Amino acid sequence: MSTKAQEVALDQSLVHRFKNGDQAAFEEMVSRYWDRIYAMVHQLLRNPQDAEEVTQDAFIRAHRGLVNFRGDSAFSTWLYQIATNLARNRYWYWWRRKRDKTISFDQPVGDDNSTPLADIFVTEAETPEDATITQELVDSIADGMEKLSPKHREILILRNVKNLTYEEIAEILDISIGTVKSRIARARESLRSKLGEDFQ
After folding, report:
1. Lowest-confidence segment of 41-55, 102-116, 134-148, 149-163 by average pLDDT
2. Where is the RNA polymerase sigma factor 70 region 4 type domain (predicted)?
3. 26 and 67 in contact (C-beta within 8 Å)?
4. Per residue in 119-149, pLDDT tens?
5. What is 101-200's CATH number, 1.10.260.40, 2.30.30.40, 1.10.40.30, 1.10.10.10?
C-alpha cells in the first residue's frame, strides 16, 4: 500500500469516526493537516497573520461541512479546496483595495510577494519594463479574472500566485500533469480574450 493510499485510508477512518460523534477524530485531522494548509495559504498571501486566520477559517468550515462530506474526493483534496477558496477571496479583497494605484507590470504583486505582475498576466504587447498598468487595465484584469471559470481562475492562482509546481497542482486538484499544463494555457488564453483590446 502506497503512502498516499495509507493517508487516504487514515483520513477515511477519521471522517467515519467524526461522523459517528468522535470529536477527537477532528482534532487528529487538524494536527495532521494544519502545517500543510498553513504553508499553502502562506505561499499565496505571504502574510503570517492572514495565513493563520485563513487556516483557522478553513478548519472551522471543514468542521461544519464534514457531516455532509460524501467522500467523492479525498478529505485532503476537499480541505485544500476550502483553504484555496478562502485564500483566493482574501487575495482578491486585497487586490480590489490596491487597484486604485497605477503600477507597472514588473512591480511585485505585493510588499510580501515578489511575484511580478508580468508572471501572472502574460502579455505580448510591451515589455514588462515599460508597460504601465492604468487603473482601467487593473480593473479589467480583476474583472477578467472574476469572469474566468472557477477551474481557470484557480489554476492561474495556484501556478502564478502561489508558485506551485505542476506536480503539486496535479496532486491538489487530482488531475494529471498534462491536464495541468493544458488548463493553464487555456486559462491564460481565456483571460487574454476577456481583457480584449487592453490586453492585445
Report:
1. 102-116
2. 142-191
3. no
4. 555 444 444 443 444 455 556 666 777 788 8
5. 1.10.10.10
